[in-house]
């Protein structure tokens, strides 16, 4: 059995992703690496992808004191004790977000909760991070044990390269990302934006779901392909994919009446069943076909939105 199979339920996994024939990936040039990631070069080989993730995440510049696998082994028993992993309450900062099981087996499903609780213990400064359960669940498919998964996620969270945004960890960052996504939809997907404005009472509420489409609703085969590129190219990839999802949703639904009176639920259901509409390759192709889309533009939008929110005094999520 493959060393990266411990948490995977192979009956649920795409059968084309075999565990054998673990090639090594020898590539140092960034541009070449970017192309390989976009082409899905390691998508067909489970253990190759695991090794690539380990390597890419190992290269993330981090804070000097970043918790590693040994920290996990030290703290997990103290934090979890004898409690049943499957019923562990999650920290408030994941905001009741979906905890996707993807293709995890029972041990993996429990391990996700254990890892999230240990991360909460080590990162007291995280105040809002709804993408975390999905990232932990995804990386667990490509981890030899819980401690290795914990270390990879900690490195993503502790990234201290100012030019490399990875995961939003405060409500302010998350909220300004949602506003920025709304700005991008308005500019790059005008037809879809018109539809959203027409059918929803609060268009910002619809756009505030954009990370949930990626980290929650997308099936594993898709989210892993997104993650391949995200680890190489960073945050702007997430915007591209979410815009592409909205474009596909609009195209598929253009002629039809909106099914429910809740377009937010419609899009979630559409993303869950994305395989009926578009393959992972086509989705990525669509995402990267959006022209004139620059990192600098995104940074400027994000900073402007963050500033606007701070001026309104919106920096923490209000208790419902």
UniProtKB/TrEMBL annotation:
**Would you say which domain of life the source belongs to?**
Eukaryota
The Rab-GAP TBC domain covers which part of the protein? 41-257
One of the Pfam families matching this protein, by short name: RabGAP-TBC
- Residue ranges annotated as transmembrane are none
Q: Name one GO molecular function term.
A: small GTPase binding
The record's section on PANTHER family has: GTPASE ACTIVATING PROTEIN AND CENTROSOME-ASSOCIATED, ISOFORM B, RAB GTPASE-ACTIVATING PROTEIN 1-LIKE
Q: What's the protein called, per UniProt?
A: Rab-GAP TBC domain-containing protein
């Amino acid at each position: 059995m493959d060393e990266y199979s411990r948490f995977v339920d192979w009956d649920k996994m795409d059968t084309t992703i075999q565990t054998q024939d673990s090639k090594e990936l020898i590539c140092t040039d960034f541009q070449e690496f970017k192309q390989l990631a976009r082409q899905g070069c390691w998508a067909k080989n489970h253990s190759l992808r695991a090794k690539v993730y380990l390597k890419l995440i190992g290269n993330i510049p981090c804070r000097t004191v970043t918790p590693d696998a040994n920290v996990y082994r030290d703290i997990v028993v103290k934090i979890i004790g004898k409690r049943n992993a499957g019923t562990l309450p999650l920290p408030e900062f994941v905001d009741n977000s979906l905890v996707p099981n993807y293709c995890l087996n029972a041990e993996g499903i429990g391990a996700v909760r254990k890892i999230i609780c240990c991360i909460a213990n080590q990162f007291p400064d995280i105040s809002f991070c709804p993408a975390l359960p999905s990232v932990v669940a995804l990386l667990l498919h490509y981890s030899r044990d819980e401690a290795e998964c914990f270390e990879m996620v900690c490195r993503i969270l502790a990234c201290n390269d100012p030019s490399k945004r990875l995961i939003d960890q405060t409500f302010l960052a998350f909220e300004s990302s949602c506003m920025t996504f709304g700005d991008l939809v308005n500019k790059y997907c005008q037809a879809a934006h018109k539809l959203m404005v027409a059918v929803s009472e609060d268009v910002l509420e619809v756009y505030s779901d954009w990370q949930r489409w990626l980290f929650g609703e997308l099936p594993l085969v898709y989210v892993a392909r997104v993650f391949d590129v995200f680890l190489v190219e960073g945050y702007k990839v997430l915007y591209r994919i979410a815009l592409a999802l909205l474009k596909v949703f609009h195209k598929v639904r253009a002629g039809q009446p909106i099914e429910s009176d809740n377009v937010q639920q419609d899009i979630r259901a559409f993303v869950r069943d994305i395989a009926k509409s578009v393959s992972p390759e086509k989705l990525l192709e669509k995402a990267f076909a959006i022209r004139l889309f620059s990192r600098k533009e995104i940074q400027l939008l994000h900073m402007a939105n963050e500033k606007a929110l701070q001026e309104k005094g919106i920096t923490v999520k209000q208790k419902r």
